[in-house]
Amino acid sequence: MKKFLLLGAAVLGLSSMASAQDLDANVTRPTVNDGHTYEADAETGITCKSKWVIDRIHDVDKFLNLPFVKEAGTKARSAVVDTENSKIYIGYSKPVVVDSVSNDYAHLVVFDLESGAYEGEIALTCDGVPVSGLLCANQVGIDDAGNLWFAGMYSDVSVKPAQIYVVTDIATGACKNVGQWALPAEESGAGGRCDYWDVVGDITGETSNAVCMAAVGATTSGEKCCLYRWELAQGETEWVANEDDFAGYVSYYDGLDTYPADQATWGSSSATVRIVAEEGHVGSMFYVDGFTTCPSLYLSSLSLAESFASAPDLAPAVGCNGVNEFVLGEVPFIVYAEAQYNVSPGCRINVCQLGEGMTFEGMRKYWSLPEAGLGEVSDGGTRIHNIDVTVVDDENGKQGAYIFSYKNFNGLALYCVAEDGFNDKFEEGVGVEGIEVEEVEGEAVYYNLQGVKVANPENGLFIKKAGNNASKVLVK
User: Fold this and answer.
1) Distance CA 192, CA 218 (A)
2) What are the pLDDT digits (tens) for 233-291?
3) Do 147 and 204 form a contact (C-beta atoms < 8 A)?
4) pLDDT score for 157
5) Strand 162-169 to strand 118-123: parallel, antiparallel, or no bridges (unpaired)?
6) Please, where are the H alpha helices in 59-143?
7) What domains are defined for the chain?
8) For residues 55 and 35, is the Cβ–Cβ distance under 8 A?
9) CB 304 within 8 A of CB 294
10) How do strand 125-126 and strand 174-181 relate by DSSP bridges?
11) Could you tell me which residues are beta bridge partners of residue 391?
């Protein structure tokens, strides 16, 4: 990544990073995979492998003892994979009390991509001042130019424009403000809360143009589906809402087709947009996944291009949010949140091959990940199921996709979905395959579905852990 410095050994000495001596033994022990064997697809030969998992099902002690989970786990909501530097960053709006007043301060939680090892937190500053405000690091991403960026939640961008930050020095947490997303004055009636954003292109405008979009969970008037779109021309610094080329760019849109049909709003505050990657970063296609709708693909004319109406048997539960797509070789995939924590197994993602012409019709499911889910514990709200995908080529031209699944307050997991013969460059580290975990044969520990250890389980569903194996059991 060209725009920020590598995480080197020196960063471990920063006060914002946690040293191994400061951590619970559960946090510093090796990370394990999910223990399930995913069969290769018989038609394509594409494989799936669990790299590692830290969650309420497979490693509940480790997950619950992660410092950010113990402090305020519901305020760490989105994540991004950096394969170039072998890191994973989680955006964390950390509550801090200063002079008896509590406020959120922007942090990055850092994990090692290869091993899943927790490395600590980095406090983010702009011009030497901590970045703060309610849910100020709610969204984190890496753009097409390699910029690590973050933005906050904004309850009404017609009142307070969203601020955009790029991390310029990961070792110190130094950032710069690269603009703001604001509504034109004439569109103030379309104001509403946005929690999550998506960006294509160069968010700084230095090497290319950029497009940002967001879906409003509910407008101030509570009526009609509403989308925001801003564009940044290369060489410019001001983001502009483009009304000429995008119907309904920052306004209510009456008559928008949805799945399920006839939804008046996206619902709730966690509606998401995922812009499809295209040459020129034009953003002419995008998925919207709202609380009241399933992931659906739209064109810039706001016409509905694809939806689960063509594959109803694979449709996710309404009320969960998270979608992405990728291509391996010539095989197109969609990956999406199956359900939240109100089902069993909870908080899984489905990996499906799209039909001919990358359509939903003829879609078929390969796997649900993890097979046993990440957890079934409510975080007290409707949060995004973060699904980040990075596709890489090996030295032989084979492709692999690193899929990072992160569900706030339930867990995080990394998978490698790849063409047959792909050389996984992250294969040899600890925490991948073949890790040795001390087991006591015959000794089992039980937890309820909230992750609380139970000495004498009876009359219910429990998580049973024996050594490196975890499973759900019904105890009568």
Assistant:
1) 6
2) 999 999 998 766 665 666 777 778 999 999 988 887 778 999 999 999 999 999 999 98
3) yes
4) 87
5) unpaired
6) 60-65, 67-72
7) 39-422 (2.120.10), 446-476 (no CATH)
8) no
9) no
10) parallel
11) 401
